[in-house]
Design goal:
By secondary structure, this protein is of the alpha+beta class. It is built from 7 helices and 13 strands. The strands form 3 sheets. Strands 1-2-3-5-6-8-7 form a 7-stranded mixed sheet, with helices on both faces.
Amino acid sequence: MELIKLTHDNIDKEHICCAISNNKDIQVMSKKNWLKERLDEGLVFLKCDVRGKCFIEYIPAEYAWTPIEAKGYMYINCLWVSGQFKGKGYSNILLNECIEDSKNKGKKGVVILSSKKKMGFISDPKYMRYKGFETVDTKEPYFELMYLPFGKNEYKPRFKNMTDKCKNMPKGFVLYYTNQCPFTAKYVPIIENMAREKGIDFNVVHIKSIEDAQNAPIPFTTFSLFYNGEFITHEILSEKKFEKIIANKLL
C-alpha cells in the first residue's frame, strides 16, 4: 500500500478520505482550506492511496487546536481507518509512520485525545493502549489525554484548566466548532437553523485561530455542544440526533 503525504502542490487534487469526493463540495473545501493553513505549521496528513477513510493527521503540539500543554510532543489530530480497510494493518502502518517521523524530528513523544471507552470521532483507547500509549490526564465527562513518550524521563503532557470557561457560558445551547472536520461545514448550519426556527437560544462559536482553540472550554474543539454551561456531546449531530437532545433538555 502506497502512502501519500499532502503538500501545497497536491492537496487540491487529492481525495482527503473523510469527506465526499467532490472537491467543490463545501465540506471538502472547508477542510482543505483549514489544512492548507496548517501545512506550514508542520501538519502532516498521510493517507493510503485509496478513496476511503484510511489516514493519519498530526501536528506539533504547540500548534494543536486543543487546550493542552505538551511542548515538544507531536499531537495526533485524527487516525481513521474504517470500512473495507479495517483489519488489514493500515492503522499500524500509519501510526508507526507518525511515530518514526516524530522521532526523526526530535520530538519527546506523541500525544492523542481519547476517551474512557470507544466513541465516535475520538481515538479508540483500547487500540492506543495496545500500541503502548498511557493515559496521562483526564477531563470530565469522558476525555482522556494519552501519550507515548520516547524517553523515560520526559515530562507528562496535561490538559489546561477549562473549568471557569464553562461557568461563564450564556444560557441555552452553545456550540463550539472548527473547520478541522469537513462535516461541520454541513451540519452546524443545519442545527443552527433548526434552533432558530424553534425559537431556541442557540449561540455558535466558530473557532478560527490556534489561540482560541487552545483556550477553549473543552478538549474536543472540532465540535462540542453545551446547554446552560453543561457539556452535552462532542459527536457531530444530524437533525434527528439534535431533535432528541432538544426533547430531552427542553420538554
